[in-house]
């Protein structure tokens, strides 16, 4: 599904990833954790071919990410749905149009779009806001739209980069429920986060990166006790009462 | 991208509508370039036509006869020339014929010639030759023939003319190329501003997996539309200007000078074709160039 084989990426003197080997199977739900600057975003940039590694090979399905030409990058990115911390919705388009846009890009017919978009909007629970613009929505609602856009083309993997980073704890948990639901439909999910409490509650596979190295790869808890989790004070209050 | 032409055109118009001032500036700049281009083009075409017409006289040598030289002797000279292998035809033009021809050429102003009180024009022999060499030989020898006062022969004029027109053509070609480059820079800068304003949107599109051509499409059409509008405006302006200049100079003077003028209809059609091709070229090049940086990733 997703395979990193001995991948090394350096930024000048700094290490992004060092000889990282990661295998993520189809249908997995994986948390990618670690202190900031540890190499989490490098991981995502590598999968999406925003950057290329110095060494090693990366595969997404049968596609060798490190070998494809620039022209094939769009094809690669369509295999992966992406959700960002800051949602990145098209501000001038309505909720419906934002989701439809992902389908327009891959030249889906108008008929298919009309059938598929409402289904996805109802899956993420935002049907009633279909004709609102992103700025009229709450943060949680915007993230639902972003998730709808990410999964509308049935990608093999959903990559979520701190999807709950801008959300309050309760909304964050709603989003996690939604991701869980999508995972159960068969979509592989890779979620980058340092929200300790969420990881602990979800109890999924955790891949921990530190200084560019994979330091842990197992089911269970977040496992760090570092300053990063302090940022999520508010979340802690809710989950550690 | 053309499978989604409708989408692209719609998006392009949305963009143009949001950036009216910018579109206007681009159109203005390109139109200015095209106007200068048009003037050069019109001038070049007219000069070329003039040169062509003059060159046609090249196959003919006109011998002006002395006053009161006997008609029989003139005709004899003509017959002599006719037997020359390089000569295709010899024509006698009496002084009366010559005046008539001049009168008809002057048209409405022909009456002015009536006041001359006499006919100052000489009898002449017009010798049509098959090639330039014969013309040169005849021209060189004719003055030695008794009764020939002067000759009219265009060799030198034609040579000079050819050199001049060649120079003008090359010079205007360089100027035109330069103007086209400037136009491309102007358009690409204008579109770069629109692209800049939408850089975030473009990045999102790329993240979702939009191809470069998908993102480029609307901008490309925008550039083409700007080019087209400029082309239409410029064609109209050049046509109006040309028409005005011609009417100021006046058809009479043109006729008197016997300078041929390219008709406005012919010019307008060709200018329109050239301007449209140019506008579309400038517009599309400009937009593609301006987007390069944003589509690298």
Concise structural overview:
The complex is a heterodimer of chains A (241) and B (297). Chain A has 241 residues and is of the alpha/beta class. In chain B, strands 2-3-1-4 form a four-stranded antiparallel sheet.
Q: What does this protein structure show overall?
A:
- The complex is a heterodimer of chains A (241) and B (297).
- Chain A has one domain (2-239): P-loop containing nucleotide triphosphate hydrolases (Rossmann fold).
- Chain A has helices at 40-47, 73-79, 95-105, 110-123, 139-151, 169-184, 196-202, 233-239; strands at 2-11, 14-24, 29-33, 55-60, 63-64, 80-83, 157-161, 188-192, 205-210, 213-219.
- Helix content of chain A is 34%, strand content 25%.
- The relative contact order of chain A is 0.19.
- Chain A contains 8 helices and 10 strands.
- Chain A has a 6-stranded mixed sheet with strand order 6-7-8-3-9-10, with helices on both faces. A 4-stranded antiparallel sheet of chain A has the order 2-1-4-5, with helices on one face.
- Chain B is of the alpha+beta class and 297 residues long.
- Chain B folds into 2 domains: 2-54 and 158-295, no CATH class; 58-154, Alpha-Beta Plaits.
- Chain B is built from 10 helices and 4 strands; from the N terminus they run H-H-E-H-E-H-E-H-E-H-H-H-H-H.
- Chain B has helices at residues 5-18, 20-56, 71-82, 95-106, 132-142, 155-197, 199-208, 212-249, 251-256, 264-291; strands at residues 60-65, 87-93, 124-129, 148-152.
- Chain B has a 4-stranded antiparallel sheet with strand order 2-3-1-4.
- The longest helix of chain B is centred in the middle third of the chain and has 43 residues, at 155-197.
- Chains A and B meet through helix 2 and helix 3 of A and helix 7 of B.
């Amino acid at each position: 599904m997703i395979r990193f084989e001995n991948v090394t990426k350096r930024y000048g003197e700094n290490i992004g990833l060092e000889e990282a080997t990661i295998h993520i199977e189809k249908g997995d739900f994986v948390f990618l954790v670690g202190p900031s600057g540890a190499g989490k975003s490098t991981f995502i940039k590598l999968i999406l071919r925003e950057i290329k590694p110095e060494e090693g090979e990366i595969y997404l399905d049968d596609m060798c990410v490190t070998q494809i030409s620039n022209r094939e990058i769009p094809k690669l990115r369509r295999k992966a749905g992406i959700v960002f911390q800051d949602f990145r919705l098209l501000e001038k388009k309505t909720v419906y149009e934002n989701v439809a846009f992902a389908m327009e890009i891959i030249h889906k017919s108008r008929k298919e779009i009309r059938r598929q978009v409402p289904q996805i909007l109802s899956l993420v629970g935002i049907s009633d806001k279909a004709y609102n613009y992103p700025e009229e929505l709450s943060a949680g609602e915007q993230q639902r739209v972003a998730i709808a856009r990410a999964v509308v083309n049935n990608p093999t993997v959903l990559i979520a980069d701190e999807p709950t980073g801008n959300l309050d704890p309760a909304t964050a948990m709603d989003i996690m429920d939604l991701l869980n639901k999508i995972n159960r439909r068969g979509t592989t999910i890779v979620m980058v986060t340092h929200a300790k409490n969420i990881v602990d509650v979800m109890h999924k596979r955790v891949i921990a990166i530190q200084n560019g190295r994979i330091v842990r790869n197992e089911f269970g808890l977040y496992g760090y006790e570092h300053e990063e989790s302090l940022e999520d004070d508010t979340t802690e209050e809710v989950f550690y009462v | 991208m053309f499978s989604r032409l409708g989408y692209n055109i719609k998006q392009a118009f949305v963009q143009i509508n949001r950036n009216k001032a910018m579109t206007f500036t681009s159109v203005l700049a390109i139109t200015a370039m095209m106007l200068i281009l048009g003037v050069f083009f019109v001038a070049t075409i007219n000069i070329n036509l003039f040169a062509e017409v003059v060159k046609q006289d090249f196959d003919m040598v006109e011998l002006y006869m002395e006053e009161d030289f006997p008609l029989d002797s003139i005709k004899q000279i003509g017959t002599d020339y006719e037997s020359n292998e390089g000569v295709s035809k010899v024509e006698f033009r009496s002084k009366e014929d010559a005046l008539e021809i001049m009168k008809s050429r002057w048209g409405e102003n022909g009456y002015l010639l009536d006041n001359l009180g006499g006919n100052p024009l000489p009898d002449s022999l017009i010798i049509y030759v098959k090639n330039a060499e014969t013309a040169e030989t005849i021209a060189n020898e004719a003055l030695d023939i008794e009764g020939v006062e002067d000759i009219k022969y265009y060799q030198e004029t034609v040579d000079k003319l050819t050199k001049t027109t060649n120079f003008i053509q090359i010079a205007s070609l360089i100027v035109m190329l330069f103007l086209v480059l400037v136009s491309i820079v102007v358009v690409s800068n204008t579109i770069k501003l629109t692209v800049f304003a939408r850089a975030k949107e473009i990045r999102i599109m790329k993240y979702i997996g939009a191809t470069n051509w998908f993102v480029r499409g609307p901008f490309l059409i925008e550039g083409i539309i700007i080019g087209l509008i400029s082309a239409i405006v410029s064609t109209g302006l050049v046509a109006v200007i040309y028409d005005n200049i011609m009417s100021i100079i006046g058809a009479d003077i043109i006729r008197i000078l016997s300078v041929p003028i390219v008709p406005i209809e012919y010019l307008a059609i060709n200018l329109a074709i050239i301007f449209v091709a140019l506008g579309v070229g400038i517009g599309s090049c400009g937009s593609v160039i301006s987007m390069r940086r944003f589509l690298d990733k």
